[in-house]
């Protein structure tokens, strides 16, 4: 088989993977943009309208609260687990930890939602609340954040760690002076992707955190919230109500815009990090040649 034939077959096989998501995105924009208007963001809030009129600010703020809260809960735990993997675990425990993380990452989010409903809502009596939704989303994104942090630490040049060890730096100083300055772009990239993942989940918060109306801003961590995800789910079922379906499409455009913004920011940060690594490698090669 010639190279040209192989490239053509690869292109044909990859084409549906490119066209189908692009077609879905274009259709969402086609249906949602005409329904968007400024009052959806800054208009008066109608808390008892089930979201088919008034501002969408309660739904947007609820989604953002769940996203930020999940990341605040998951990020320190992810960093601690990655540092345990790098500094304390032997080879057998490292393999076990990574296997467990990959297993947890493959569990469907709806299963986490059911577990949260049974354990947090009913057994611990947290109820349908912001805290319950934040906790479930934190559990969902935790494996991804841990794996990203582990890989970020592994990508740090061994020479830097060995030099720090040779200078007698303890683990705390090694982390603060060497690992965090070198790995922070990768850590921030993973955090942005985790935020995008938390913002796109529907089933877990449908069981644990959200209601369809009656809430503008949660009174406490144990109050429910509304969200764009469940808002779209509810309005999409009102097939006979044209206005409700139009608002569902507009809400979908807002949600896609938020997720896309986070994903693009992560991609830009990753590209900047790759460019810095290439430039530093070029400088090191040039200095070696000059020497």
Question: What characteristics describe this protein?
Answer:
291 residues, mainly alpha, MetI-like fold, 11 helices, 0% strand
Topology:
Layout: H1 3-32, H2 39-42, H3 57-87, H4 91-105, H5 109-123, H6 130-154, H7 158-166, H8 171-200, H9 203-208, H10 228-236, H11 242-290
Helix pairs in contact: 1-11, 3-6, 3-8, 4-6, 5-6, 6-8, 8-11, 10-11
Largest sheet: none
Distance between the termini: 47 Å
The helix count comes to 11
Helix content: over 70%
CATH class of the domain at 62-227: Mainly Alpha
Q: What is the second-level CATH architecture of the domain at 62-227?
A: Orthogonal Bundle
Low-confidence stretches: 283-291
Oligomer: single chain
* Structural class by sheet pairing and helices: mainly alpha
What is the mean pLDDT? Answer: 86
Number of strands: 0
Radius of gyration: 23 Å
Name the CATH superfamily classification of the domain at 62-227: MetI-like
CATH topology of the domain at 62-227: MetI-like fold
Order of helical and strand elements = HHHHHHHHHHH
Fraction in beta strands: under 5%
How would the global form be characterised?
A: globular
């Amino acid at each position: 088989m010639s190279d040209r034939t192989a490239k053509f077959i690869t292109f044909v096989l990859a084409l549906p993977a490119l066209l189908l998501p692009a077609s879905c995105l274009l259709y969402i924009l086609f249906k949602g943009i005409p329904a968007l208007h400024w009052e959806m963001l800054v208009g008066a809030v109608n808390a008892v309208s089930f979201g088919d009129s008034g501002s969408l600010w309660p739904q947007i703020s609820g989604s953002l609260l769940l996203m930020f809260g999940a990341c605040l809960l998951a990020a320190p735990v992810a960093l601690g687990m990655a540092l345990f993997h790098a500094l304390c675990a032997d080879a057998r425990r490292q393999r076990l930890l990574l296997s467990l993380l990959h297993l947890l990452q493959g569990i469907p989010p709806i299963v986490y939602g059911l577990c949260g409903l049974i354990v947090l809502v009913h057994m611990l009596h947290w109820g349908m609340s912001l805290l319950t939704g934040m906790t479930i989303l934190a559990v969902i994104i935790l494996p991804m954040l841990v794996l990203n942090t582990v890989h970020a630490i592994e990508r740090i040049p061994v020479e830097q760690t060995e030099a720090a060890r040779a200078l007698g730096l303890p683990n705390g100083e090694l982390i603060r002076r060497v690992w965090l300055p070198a790995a922070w772009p990768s850590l921030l990239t993973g955090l942005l992707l985790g935020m995008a993942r938390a913002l796109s989940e529907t089933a877990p918060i449908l069981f644990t955190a959200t209601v369809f109306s009656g809430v503008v801003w949660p009174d406490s961590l144990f109050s429910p919230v509304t969200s764009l995800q469940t808002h779209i789910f509810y309005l999409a079922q009102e097939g006979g109500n044209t206005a409700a379906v139009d608002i569902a499409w507009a809400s979908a455009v807002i949600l896609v815009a938020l997720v896309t913004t986070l994903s693009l920011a992560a991609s830009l940060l990753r590209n900047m990090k790759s460019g810095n690594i290439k430039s530093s490698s070029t400088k090191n090669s040039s200095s070696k040649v000059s020497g």
